[in-house]
Amino acid sequence: MTESSLSKPEIEFPEGPAPTELQIVDVVEGSGEEALASSTVNVHYLGVEFESGEEFDSSWGRGESINFPLRSLIQGWQVGIPGMKVGGRRKLIVPPAQAYGAAGAHPLAGKTLIFVIDLLGVS
């Protein structure tokens, strides 16, 4: 496992309306192995709600990175992480259709979400 040399990100409050399409922004370009759609990724991440700017989840807050098979994650991550390289930091702005769907059972349903993801490893 590789620890990120990057510290917990700060997300600036977005201006304007929430995007209706997935937004992918490389904050730091990685130089390691590339994540594929079939990869299991080791990441540090921070998630905030677009509208309120409130943090809803953070691996930084738990003090440890996490491993996920990409195919088990929300569509915004399944589309937004492949092509990213280890050592990189990427910001994803994920509309509800690619997150937790329209308003419903999940507390984040109907919300546009912003994630900042540090890719620490792939397998």
Automatic annotation (TrEMBL):
UniProt-listed Enzyme Commission number(s): 5.2.1.8
Record keywords: Isomerase included?
yes
Give TM regions.
none
Write out the catalysed reaction.
[protein]-peptidylproline (omega=180) = [protein]-peptidylproline (omega=0)
EC category: isomerase
Q: Which residues form the PPIase FKBP-type domain?
A: 38-123
Homology family: Belongs to the FKBP-type PPIase family.
Q: What is this protein called?
A: Peptidyl-prolyl cis-trans isomerase
